[in-house]
């Protein structure tokens, strides 16, 4: 159902460097780029993720409760992607591990360089 999701940035070049390295670990590459937005995808026709400089000219900011979940094929990939996000300068919002009563959801939470919140997860 989701075609793409974007988060705001105030430094497109810095954000792109971060996501080129981070999402490259999952096999994603740039699918579209303009002077305001860059989108990554794993394959043509699959959902995309992007960073964007806001159209209204105001500073990008994070929302309380906003989060994007990026699916991983295994819990080991969750661990690796979370570690990469932190190594590239992201900040911890919850180390990888099982969540919920049944432990079926395994996720590692982090914030990117602009403070946007994400989770790498496997179910």
Task: Tell me the major beta sheet.
Answer: 4 strands, mixed
Query: Count of helical segments?
Result: 2
Secondary-structure element order, N to C: EHEEEEHEEE
Low-confidence stretches: none
> Helicity level, as a percent range?
10-25%
For the termini, the CA-CA separation is: 18 Å
Task: Label the overall shape.
Answer: globular
State mean pLDDT (0 to 100 scale): 95
What share of the residues does DSSP label as strand, in percent?
35-45%
Structural class: alpha/beta
Q: If strands are numbered along the chain, what order do they take across the biggest sheet?
A: 1-4-3-2
Radius of gyration: 14 Å
How many DSSP-defined strands?
8
Compile the SSE list and pairings.
Layout: E1 4-8, H1 12-24, E2 29-33, E3 37-41, E4 48-52, E5 68-71, H2 75-87, E6 91-99, E7 105-111, E8 117-122
Parallel strand pairs: 1-4, 5-8
Antiparallel strand pairs: 2-3, 3-4, 6-7, 7-8
Could you walk me through the main structural features you see in this protein, from its secondary elements to its overall organization?
- The mean pLDDT is 95.
- It contains two helices and eight strands.
- It has a four-stranded mixed sheet, covered by helices on one side. Strands 5-8-7-6 form a four-stranded mixed sheet, covered by helices on one side.
- A hairpin with a 6-residue loop joins strand 3 (37-41) and strand 4 (48-52).
- It is an alpha/beta fold and 123 residues long.
- The two termini are 18 Å apart.
- It is globular, with a radius of gyration of 14 Å.
- 21% of the residues lie in helices and 37% in strands.
